């Protein structure tokens, strides 16, 4: 009997151990490059203005418009929450637009891949009432329309432009004089503007991420080869990028718009170390392979792109 019990226990432990071993699945580690790089685009919000007549009294200050700043904060918050962008503070709109018109030189001067220009084009609020024999109902309604333009800084072209409308309301009801009575709710403005901006954010994200992430050489000599960008943009040691020549620009005779043709890949750049303290000053050391064609005296003709 004891032998039978010992044999049974032995079999149970053997099966348990086998089951335990069977669940231990060993996988080869997958590099971040294989999983797809999560590289953040640099975006600057150059302006968000209030183009309506709301709150524009005799002492109105265009540079300190509360509604414009409200919309800018909402857009910044939504873009940051997506985790796909590195937002840059850029308050001098006139300088930004001037730099953007310089074309390719603007990308380096502004330090951003894309620039957003927005405005509140419509804004209104109203009260809608409904009175009965024993009850009354009051609804506060706020409606807002927001317009957005997304500019590719390297070309100066508007790659996305759209407008969206949002609304928010609050209803109070009284019966025989009993019930809620509320003055105008200022948070309705936030909700209406936020709803309008929320309809545009997904398209902004798609437009920015459809194109390959890119950066540029900072230095190329015997001491070190550096590219712009670092940890805050998602650049990690071991990542590999394609080195391409900037494509030729041709003019579309129908639209008059300059079109950039695809460039030629001339090599690869592998990140060996990153550095820098701020998004504007970050850099990465790279080693270059697979090329003898790079002209170190003219780094402006090359672009570094992610490999998709």
Provide a compact summary of the structure:
It is built from 6 helices and 15 strands. With 308 residues, it is of the alpha+beta class.
Q: What does this molecule look like?
A:
The chain is α+β, with helices and mostly antiparallel strands and 308 residues long. The chain has two domains: 176 residues, Rossmann fold (3-Layer(aba) Sandwich); 93 residues, Thrombin, subunit H, CATH 2.40.10. The chain is built from six helices and 15 strands. The strands form three sheets. The protein has a seven-stranded antiparallel sheet with strand order 7-15-10-13-14-9-8, with no helix packed on it. Strand 1, helix 3 and strand 2 form a beta-alpha-beta unit.
CATH top level of the largest domain?
A: Alpha Beta
Distance between the termini: 67 Å
Task: Give the strand line-up of the largest sheet.
Answer: 7-15-10-13-14-9-8
Pairing-aware structural class of the strands and helices?
alpha+beta
Q: Could you say how many structural domains there are in total?
A: 2
| Regions with little confidence, pLDDT below 50 for 5+ residues | 2-9, 15-37, 103-108
Helix content: 25-40%
| CATH homologous superfamily caption of the largest domain | ABC-type transport auxiliary lipoprotein component
Helix and strand pattern: HHEHEHHEEEEHEEEEEEEEE
Number of distinct helices: 6
Radius of gyration: 29 Å
- Mean pLDDT, to the nearest integer, reads 77
CATH topology of the largest domain: Rossmann fold
């Amino acid at each position: 009997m004891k032998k039978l019990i010992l044999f049974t226990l032995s079999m149970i432990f053997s099966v348990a151990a086998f089951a335990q071993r069977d669940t231990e699945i060993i996988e080869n580690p997958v590099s971040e490059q294989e999983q797809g790089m999560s590289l953040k685009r640099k975006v600057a919000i150059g302006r968000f203005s209030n183009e309506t007549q709301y709150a524009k009294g005799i002492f109105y200050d265009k540079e300190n418009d509360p509604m414009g700043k409200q919309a800018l904060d909402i857009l910044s918050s939504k873009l940051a929450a997506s985790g796909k962008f590195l937002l840059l503070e850029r308050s001098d709109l006139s300088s930004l637009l001037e730099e953007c018109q310089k074309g390719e030189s603007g990308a380096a001067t502004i330090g951003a891949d894309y620039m957003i220009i927005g405005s509140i084009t419509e804004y209104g609020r109203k009260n809608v009432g409904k009175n009965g024999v024993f009850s009354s109902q009051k609804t506060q309604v706020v409606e807002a329309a927001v317009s957005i333009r997304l500019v590719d800084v390297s070309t100066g072209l508007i790659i996305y432009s759209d407008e969206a409308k949002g609304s928010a309301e609050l209803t109070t009801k009284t019966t025989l004089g009993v019930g809620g009575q509320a003055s105008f709710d200022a948070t309705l403005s936030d909700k209406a503007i936020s709803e309008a901006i929320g309809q545009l954010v997904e398209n902004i994200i798609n437009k920015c991420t459809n194109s390959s992430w890119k950066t540029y050489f900072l230095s190329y000599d015997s001491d070190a080869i550096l590219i712009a960008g670092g940890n805050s943009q998602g650049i990690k040691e071991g990542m590999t990028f394609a080195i391409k020549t900037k494509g030729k620009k041709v003019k579309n005779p129908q639209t008059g718009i300059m079109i950039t043709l695809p460039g030629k890949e001339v090599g690869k750049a592998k990140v060996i170390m990153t550095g820098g303290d701020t998004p504007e000053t970050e850099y990465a050391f790279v080693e270059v392979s697979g090329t003898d064609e790079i002209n170190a005296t003219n780094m402006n003709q090359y672009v570094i792109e992610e490999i998709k």
